[in-house]
Amino acid sequence: MGRHDKLLLQILRGLSDANVGFEELCGLLKYLGFTMRVRGSHHLFSMDGVAEQINLQRDGAQAKPYQVRQVRVVIVKYKLGKDT
User: Fold this and answer.
1) Total-model pTM
2) Number of domains the chain contains
3) By Cβ atoms counted within 10 A, which residue in 39, 40, 80, 84 is the most buried?
4) Where in the sequence is the domain holding 21, given as residue range(s)?
5) In 3D, which of 83, 57, 61 has the Cα closest to residue 70?
6) Please, which contacts does 20-26 make with residues 24 or more away whose CB atoms are closer than 8 Å?
């Protein structure tokens, strides 16, 4: 099981949203097929076929817990990562 798969499982379990690294979360979204655009401190992720745009900001080295929850909602809604 690769690092992206482990992080995906951690996010889907929802037990440690405050312990997800920002860079790791960005890497996972790119791995799932999202494109990233940076506007100041905002990292914006979009993908064809996904209506929502994901907006991430750093909280030190970690991703903000509420944004991890938003990523989980998008992953579940669009069934992303099923092929990995």
Assistant:
1) 0.94
2) 1
3) 80
4) 3-77
5) 57
6) 20/62, 20/63, 20/65, 20/68, 21/61, 21/62, 21/63, 22/56, 22/58, 22/59, 22/61, 22/62, 22/63, 23/61, 25/56, 25/63, 25/68, 25/71, 26/56
